């Protein structure tokens, strides 16, 4: 199995270099929000829009309950609506506001905060299916978390699922994906980089520690994750943390892997690209599944580099399954 990387040109009002931000694709547009240029300092709270057809950036003229700037934030989308949860503010305070952003009207709406919904956190993970938004793990007010929540967009309410137990250590920067009516929790950081995989069955509402086979990725966190068909695709991530913590750059991976959710086997993807077309080693990126030219793949924007420089480039990875 292989995959192809393409670097996308950028025109218009570019958001600039950043990491610890989020991006999600709705139709032919990618929406980017949050992040940092200097460590721990939120850049802005603009909703940046990247047109996947003509590669032009613009800034949305928004209305409603606009979220304050934040880092370590997550976004996902269902239909024309984007959902944003948590993050960390200027004072390094963990947040738990849950917002929607309607792409037809550019309107922000605060859906929940305070005691309603998941507790405060940043550097968590978020995914969605056709009806529910899922939130897992991250860094909370009193350490790392391993809880799983869902917001039902039909019933307009939060659901807290059973705890995965001690086998799934609390973690930040994990991968999260929905494939085969299961929620997949992949790797993450728990004081050390992890290499375990857990899945939550949405029908039986039971957790399993997954024994994987194949060409298994090394332990890592803050990598890009997306489900494409039955596969959970991961790219990059931090494989060795910096002694300076979030203020420094650790060692990053440049590899791409696919986990077959049916066989639980890992495959290392031969990612073909010219040198300037490959994103190289990085982590703390914004990422989303998307479609360009009729091909479904993984969109990667920015992130942090081995030199601790924030990045501003955009790549699209198309796996050939």
Task: Please work out how many helical segments DSSP would assign.
Answer: 0
Do you know the CATH architecture?
A: 6 Propeller
Order of helices and strands: EEEEEEEEEEEEEEEEEEEEEEEEEEEEEE
Category from helices, strands and their pairing: mainly beta
CATH homology superfamily: Kelch-type beta propeller
- Please state roughly what percent of the residues sit in beta strands, choosing from under 5%, 5-15%, 15-25%, 25-35%, 35-45% or over 45%: over 45%
Count the E strands: 30
Uncertain stretches? none
Oligomeric status of the shown chains? Answer: single chain
* End-to-end CA span: 6 Å
CATH class: Mainly Beta
What is the 3D shape?
A: globular
Helix content estimate: under 10%
Largest sheet: 5 strands, mixed
How many domains would you count in the coordinates?
1
Mean pLDDT score: 96
The neighbouring-strand order within the major sheet is 27-1-30-29-28
Radius of gyration: 18 Å
CATH topology: Neuraminidase
Keywords: Iron, Kelch repeat, Repeat
Cofactor: Fe(2+)
Protein name: Nitrile-specifier protein 5
GO molecular function, one term: enzyme regulator activity
